[in-house]
Amino acid sequence: MRQRHLTLTLQNLTVFVKDCDTPVLNSVSFRSESGRLTAVMGPSGSGKTTLLHSLCGRLPLDSGCLKLGRQAVSRKTQKGFGYVTQEDVFFPQLTLRQMLQFTAEVRLGSEVGPAEKMRRIGRVVEALELEKCIDTRIGDFLDKGLSGGEKRRASIACELLHDPRVLLLDEPTSGLDASLAHSIVRLLHDWATSNNRIVITSIHQPSSHIYHVFDDVLLLVDGHVCYRGQRKDMANYFDCIGVPFPKDWNPADYLMEAVTSGKRALILEKGRELFTDASLPPPMSPVGTADPGCGYDAIPMRETGDTFVFKADQWRDGLMQDTGAASSATESQPLKFLESAREEQRKASWWAQFRALVVSSLRSFAVFPLVQYTVFTVLVSALWFHIQRREEDIKDILGLLFYLTLSQSNINILEPLSSFTEDLTIVQHELLANKYKISAYYLAKTVTEAPTQIILPLISLSIIFWAADLGSAGTYVEFTSMLLLNVLACQGMGMFFSLVSRRPKANLAA
Questions:
Q1: pLDDT tens per residue, range 237-273
Q2: Where are the transmembrane segments (predicted)?
Q3: How far apart are CA 223 and CA 27, in angstroms?
């Protein structure tokens, strides 16, 4: 059954950054329709990523209005949006298959059965041409696994799995060769069309083949909208304002050259004149023609020499009339957009998230703590083997107790610092993506690290106690109890420092 048509509307968004008087985005308004692929284009620093952050809720909407259908988009609704960031962030110890299974478990509700989850994974993997690396570890800069292009496609796969109503992508073709980049953009277009989804992607300078896949274009220059409308109308628009596209050029290449050259001022001037308006028109029709299916009247122009120049007042009047008509049409439609979206975006329960996180953490279990405790136990047992119970040996016993306390303190303060620091970037990314709750992550982390936090120290201390021949069973209970309490206290300190520190990696190195 085809999904209900949706419209994502942003009106009059202005975004400032800290300690800067110039807005990153200035009165940005645009509309994106479901079933269409929208490209956000512009030179570096034009505000493309900031716009996507604002749409998905990572930046607060301090000004402006964001609507899905006729209802204002809430934070809860934004959490259901899919967002592929520029950075590909994964747990490096997992294989791609395990990562996709984990994503399916934490993001899909109980109404999606195991067979359907596996079917979705299979379809996404096939569509993104990831079959060859499905069982390859993701890896990181130390442990090479997936290539940059494979990680890029894996990020897209994770978002497509939960079938969001609105999918945002920040430079999805970066790191991909021309052929693969084109196939990815074509896939996104086909997915938007066949599933009636809203897809908005930023892209810096697409090839000609990729450029012609897009349905609509939003052009940003210095945070201002300099064009919004259908891609096929773009060349006519720029021709009419005196910036004609050469016939033999890739339109995207020429556009990037134009907005960074002497024509930048003209493009900005016309953009402010025609597109800085909170009253948002429907999608553009071809410039200079009448297209009753698009909602624009013919664009009034006057001829001056060989150049066509817009009559800005008549243009704006036409937009206002069309906007009113579009609003009336929208008023008559049933208002069940957000209810439908909430039903489809129902997440996995807390318990399901916890189980998936436990499985993922166990798969990521590091062997290093086991090796560390083995070496530590062997060395200490050899150095303090069978201490004699004589007065002159009391110093040896005190030395052993001091060394055990100090070494266990250092190990168990540094271990949580290291563990949580390694996970910090990944967890922050996944919490922003609304994959799971922080409480589920923390408890799963605590449960799966119990072997290194309690069991390994207990085994190590037990072996050392009997190797050093420190006393009876009662003494053993007191000995291990006190040192385990010290271990737990130090682990708590390590967790505290890792959570409150703004620079945990620097503190760990220090």
A1: 988 888 888 888 888 888 888 888 888 888 888 888 8
A2: 365-385, 454-473, 479-500
A3: 8
Can you tell me which residue has the tokens 């004589």? 390
State the DSSP code for 296: B
CA 239 to chain centroid, in Å, comes to: 37
Residues 288/301, Cβ–Cβ less than 8 Å:
yes
Each residue of 102-137: pLDDT tens digit?
Answer: 888 888 877 788 898 899 999 999 888 899 999 999
Structure tokens at 381: 């047992």
CA-based nearest residue to 201, from 221, 224, 174, 222:
174
Q: Please state the pTM of the whole predicted model.
A: 0.74
> Left, alpha or beta for 196 (phi > 0: left; psi -120 to 50: alpha)?
left
| Cα R_g (the chain), whole angstroms | 30
Q: Which residues contact 8 (CB under 8 A, 6 or more apart)?
A: 31, 32, 55, 66, 67, 68, 73, 166, 198, 200
- Could you tell me which residues come within 8 angstroms of residue 216 by beta carbon, excluding any fewer than 6 positions away? 32, 33, 36, 37, 38, 39, 228, 229, 230, 231, 283
Q: For residue 424, what are the contacts with CB-CB under 8 A and spacing of at least 6?
A: 498, 504
For 73, other C-beta atoms within 10 Å of its C-beta total 23
Token pair 């402010």 is at which residue?
272
What CATH superfamily classification does 7-81+164-339 receive?
A: P-loop containing nucleotide triphosphate hydrolases (3.40.50.300)
What gap in Å lies between CA 83 and CA 155, rounded to an integer? 9
In the numeric block, which tokens belong to residue 236? 């006519």
